[in-house]
Each structure stands twice: as structure tokens, then as C-alpha cells.
Amino acid sequence: MFELTKDHEDFRRVVRDFAEREVAPHIAQWDRDHHFPSHLVPQMGELGFFGLVVPEEYGGAGLEEGGFTYLCLAIEELGRVDQSVGITLSAGVGLGINPILTYGTDEQKKAFLPDLVAGKTLAGFGLTEPDAGSDAGATRTRAALADGQWTINGAKAFITNSGTDRTSVVTVTAKTGERADGRPEISAIMVPSGTEGFTVEPAYDKLGWHASDTHGLTFTNCAVPEGNLLGERGAGFKQFLKTLDDGRVAISALAVGLAQACLEQVTEYSKTRTAFGKPIGINQGVSFQVSDLAVMVEAARLLTYKAAWLKDELEAGRRSVAEVKQAAAICKLYSTEAAVTATRIATQIFGGNGFMEEYPVARFYRDAKILEIGEGTSEVQRMVIARGLGLPQ
């Protein structure tokens, strides 16, 4: 059965030290300013955070087994201090590096992975569109192949790490034809930053994740070489579904970090905040909520690291894709909904102070909701779980 080793826990402490030293003192200001802390990216690269699932030949850690679990630990610990920095790593690896690592040619890997692993650059993944979110098969972006070039036209929405000063490439899904059964043929194509016709729209004014980079993208007769096709032509739909399976476990780890932060905040506050001459934690109305929160954190963490372990076991050939898909959907559904509940509990226990931006729980409350939406909504997770149970579709 899965368990965290001493090496895992030692690595956790490295990430926690980095987060508390380099992120915690500054994040409130970055959040207020909607500032993306670009300088942290190479620091995380130097510590090896971006290379945990990457072979040594491309600059990665070269971990024979367990790399995905290490990645989830890093995301959890960063997310415990700030969700924006946590999602920068999560998306940088899960949506930026992983598609290139999994489906890229050796030439593509050598061209992009070393700098991505080192944190010199970032990559994005353009799937969602203004009219195609959960229904990703409704993609309207098109790519036509002629004279050795793909010409892309369309738009993407809500793309993380797509407009930073370090973004080197965005992989986008596009219709490249039609199948014999009439369904669209969807492929994945790599578009380097700065390509003519590739426009990064202004940053979104978001509810939360203020220190994370998120943009819409527009493609107007954007031409890239035929060799920028990622994986097989027409396999884009299958590729991004697998990418999302892995990403769901990473988002679950991000949610665990947020719920853990709420637990720590309310535990301390319940000991020190007094009402009617006594610490508020003496009241069962408070202590029972804190206890429930502790249970949610424990359950979310166990579900998340079971799924991470299954993913590592799959890479070693000891588990099936179906097992990982089901575990990923279960942990993502439970952990993200638990995190949203955790922030509501924390804000309520903090009372009026919880409504003040000077307290971290206010930021936690704003940051939480997107966890139930990104990388597949809660409704989509329930659909995946039901399908895995063999229920009628």
C-alpha cells in the first residue's frame, strides 16, 4: 500500500521552507497588485520543482519511481501558503511540460524541456474556448495544413502561464479535419510565443488567484511549421483527456494545501481569540467545526496521495489507466469541494476579521472556488465516476 517515505517528507520540508521564506512575506502585496512573481520561477526550477517527472536527459530529476507524488507534495506545500504560486507550478508541469514530455518527438523535447525544467521558461496549454469549456469537443479553433505549415484561426480562454515574460510556447487544440463518422478531427499544435498572428489578450480581472497569470488567446492566420504538431494528427482529444486526468490529481493536491492552511489558521485563532472572556475554541459551535475540518483535510490528503501513488504505479506498469482515471476524479471532486467548505468555515470562525483582506482566510476564500471548476468541473468528475462504476450513460 502507498505511504510517504522519509525522502518524501524531507522534500516536503524543502518546499515548505521555500514557500515560507520566499512567498509568505510578499503574497498579500502581490495579491493586491495582481502581480505575477516571475522571479520565483527560476528559483523553483533551481530547486528541481519543475523537473520531478522529467528524465535526466532533459534536465529533470530522473526519479525512477515516485516522481508524481513528489510533484503533488510540492504543489500542496506551495498551495498551503498561496494558491497562485501553487497553480503556477501545477500548470507549468501538468499542462506545460507533460504534454511535450508524453507526446513530443525527441527533437521537440530537446528544444523545449531543458529550459522549462530549469524555470527559465514556462509553457501553457490552450484547450478551453469562449464557447467550449466542459464540452471540449466543441472546439472551434481550426488549423489548416498547406505547404508544410499549419495556419491557425480561433480563440482560447482562461489559459494559465500563457502571457508571462517567461512563456515560450502554448500547445493548442484545434480542428484539423473531419473523421469518417462526421466527428471533428482534433489535433494538438505547439505555438511558440511571439509567432505572428498569435495574440495574448489582456490579463483577466479574476475573483482569486491574483498572482497567477491567466489570459485569453487569439489566433489570426497564425502559421507554424508542420513539425509543430504534438503527437499524432487527430489524437488531440485523447491526448488532452489523459493530460486532464493527471492534472486533476495535481489540483487535488493544491486543494489539500488550501484546506490545511485553513485548518492551521482556525486552530490558532480559536485558541487566541476571546469572546465573553474565554477563547472561542471552548465553544462546541467552534470546536466541532474545526474538528470537521480536520477530518476533511485528512480524507482529502489520503485520497490525493492514493491517486498520486496509483499514477506512479501506472508509470511502472503495475496499475491500469482506468484505476488512475477513477481515483483522479474521486480525489479531485472531494478535495476541491472540501477546500471550498474549509474556506467558508474559516471565514465564519474569523467572523468580521474573516471579511478583512489583512487576514489570509479572505484570500483563501476568494481563491477556493476555481478549484471546483478548473481541470474539469465537479459535475464532470461525477460523470467520470459514474462511468467508472459502469452506470448507464
TrEMBL record:
PROSITE patterns according to UniProt: ACYL_COA_DH_1, ACYL_COA_DH_2
Residue intervals passing through the bilayer: none
GO MF annotation: an example: acyl-CoA dehydrogenase activity
InterPro entries in alphabetical order: Acyl-CoA_DH_CS, Acyl-CoA_Oxase/DH_mid-dom, Acyl-CoA_Oxase/DH_mid-dom_sf, AcylCo_DH-like_C, AcylCo_DH/oxidase_C, AcylCoA_DH/ox_N, AcylCoA_DH/ox_N_sf, AcylCoA_DH/oxidase_NM_dom_sf
Residue stretches making up the Acyl-CoA oxidase/dehydrogenase middle domain: 125-222
Family per record: Belongs to the acyl-CoA dehydrogenase family.
Protein name as it appears in the record: Acyl-CoA dehydrogenase
Source organism: Luteipulveratus mongoliensis
